[in-house]
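Example record for the data management plan.
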Amino acid sequence: MTRVLIVEDHRIVAQGLEMGLRAEGFEVAATDGAPAALPAVVAGFAPDVVLLDLNLAGGLSGISLLPMLQAPGRTVIVLTAETDATILARALNAGADAVLGKTMPFPQLIREILAIPRGLTAEARNRHDRMLHEARLAAQERAKRLAPFAALTPREEGVLSMLVDGVRADDIAEASYVSLSTVRSQIRSILAKLGVGSQLAAVSLAIKAGWVPRPR
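Corresponding structural encoding:
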């Protein structure tokens, strides 16, 4: 009998999966994914297949649990409502065997659980390749959006970060122990490098691009 471990913090979802899988003849256990308890659950149940949610309680990512779940002969399937191709591709690159959507019809889910350990079906392979392709496109688009910010000096990054947080130029000067004219000069340099004409436009561009200062 195939043993399936459900790693899911939403109790109703977990219970629904448990009942459905048991009705199909699987041996099933469930856990909310708490890292402190997970190794003991995995060791005690020794699952053949793991159904792993990505967005768990407390902001925990299922991707971080993959090292605890992977083992020779075991299949780890991400079962998630997440649609961000970059995140899904990260799960695949971290070692998940496949990604399935929670909206998938239950009969199809059963077929995939049975088929994936023997190799991806054509449908699953197409889904896998599409996710990776979409993730590459998203990464390229993000790099393009962030390219103008690479020209900023560390000090300019700090000033822009404060502007994004809504800090006024005179308060930036006071907090940085420099003159207001110095801060205004830095802001003019930021606007020129980003190709915008105002502080508001620079802040808007930073937010839309998902920009954050580089770690120092």
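Summary line stored alongside the record: The chain has a mean pLDDT of 89.
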